[in-house]
Design brief:
7 helices; mainly alpha
Length: 221
């Protein structure tokens, strides 16, 4: 049953995933097509594509299942709360991570060798890419646990607003931003590695808390 639930979400979101992936590729093309201006515009488009994919998945696979009464039907099947939670998390995360991993790999590899995007910016871009995973998991966890469209929208608004603040904060940390961004080579400092470790720990914590609170629920009507 878990495999069927995962296959269902993958089937209904395969074209959505492909569309945002293509959008991300176009954004990468814009980033490295010219100078600083196109790099900035392309960066904004890439961030928009990745974040929009996360919002689309959360609303389409979690919130709408509740509003359309699909969730009640699913829970009437021979499936436990743990089975449903595991399937929903695995399906959504993998659908999100496939384009995220590919786009991230393309971006960071090009930045490491391109004259437009310096290698010194690779660490902070990596940290921001991981931050997008964190924000997606926060939105997904909020939607799953609350089953509320309102709270999910609030989570989306807070996470999207925090993106710029997080970037500014990282840029202000010595060993991550500042003059380091202008360096031609990739330099991973102790500060950037520490932040990356915190982000990985945050991802594990959010997943654990989501599974814990979701598995304690007994009413899906």
């Amino acid at each position: 049953m878990i495999k069927k639930l995962i296959a269902k979400d993958w089937y209904f979101n395969r074209y959505i995933m492909l569309a945002y992936f293509v959008g991300g590729l176009i954004a990468l093309g814009v980033m490295f097509s010219g100078g600083t201006t196109t790099f900035t515009i392309g960066s904004i488009l890439l961030v928009t594509a990745i974040i929009s994919l996360g919002c689309h998945l959360v609303m389409g696979t979690v919130v709408q299942e509740r509003t359309n009464q699909t969730l009640a039907f699913i829970m009437s099947l021979p499936v436990s709360v743990r089975d449903y939670t595991a399937a929903k998390l695995f399906a959504n995360i993998t659908v999100f991570l496939v384009p995220w991993v590919l786009l991230s790999a393309f971006l960071l590899s090009i930045m490491s060798t391109s004259q437009i995007g310096s290698g010194g910016a690779v660490p902070i871009f990596t940290l921001m890419l991981f931050w997008m995973v964190i924000t997606y998991l926060i939105m997904l966890g909020t939607a799953l646990v609350s089953e509320s469209e309102g709270w999910t929208i609030v989570a989306m608004a807070v996470c999207n607003t925090a993106f710029t603040l997080v970037f500014m904060g990282l840029n202000a940390i010595e060993g991550i931003g500042g003059e380091l961004l202008k360096q031609p080579e990739v330099i991973w400092t102790g500060a950037s590695l520490s932040v990356l470790a915190v982000e990985v720990a945050a991802i594990a914590l959010i997943l654990s808390l989501t599974f814990y609170f979701q598995s304690r629920k007994t009413d899906f009507l």
